[in-house]
Known about the structure:
Blueprint: H1 17-37, H2 47-58, H3 62-66, H4 69-89, H5 97-112, H6 119-139, E1 142-143, E2 146-147, H7 154-170, H8 173-203, H9 212-229
Helix pairs in contact: 1-8, 1-9, 4-6, 5-6, 5-9, 7-8
Amino acid sequence: MVNSHxxxxxxxxxxxxxxxxxxxxxGGMLGAYTYNLRGGVFCNAQTANVMLMAxxxxxxxxxxxxYYLIPIAAYLLGTVVSEVLPARVRKIRxxxxxxxxxxxxxxxxxxxxxxxxxxxxxxxxxxxxxxxASMQYNTFRQAEGVTMATTFVTNHIRQTGIWFVxxxxxxxxxxxxxxxRYLGMVLIFxxxxxxxxxxxxxxxxxxxxxxxxxxxxxxxxxxxADLRSERGLLDSAPHxxxxxxxxx
Length: 248
């Protein structure tokens, strides 16, 4: 349930820009991990899979096309789970759902570091990444009231252009800041992908452990807020998870 005593201008730690910056850095690393080491695909979003399935169907290759239902279904499952679980884990009264999610991601990625680079398990790894990417995308929706994604940057690029034009027209400082924030998220995502790629040849399957670093920082900040500074706000829903949506 939403805490009616939470001021509209008050943002929870899980909504802060620095949390989203850490998560989108991890998102860039995750994309580089699956592309470089786990089958040459991007599991952070599903537009490409839907398109590839359509291409297969258009060519009459129905069996090959149906394969893409696996990652799409995995992504859908991640969304469903991240809608259903928050109300249940909230009853534990220790952390918020978003904090548990980051801890879960850390545990999953740690385990993936022990899985060898073997084509026989590549599809399984891709499905796992599809699920956690979907859960993260659905959980972290707005950064201080501004819609933001942490697993891909298509909308960030679009919003950078929109707010650049608005800034040129009006010259308002706040419009310029919005433009730079979206651009910054694109650059951070890019940096995450570049950093992980640089280590893939050295660390092999254990390169996935590097993604744990920004996630661990995020978890520390979120856990501290849940246990101390925002202890009384465990039932408060972040902006973007309001009425009609599952409260985190």
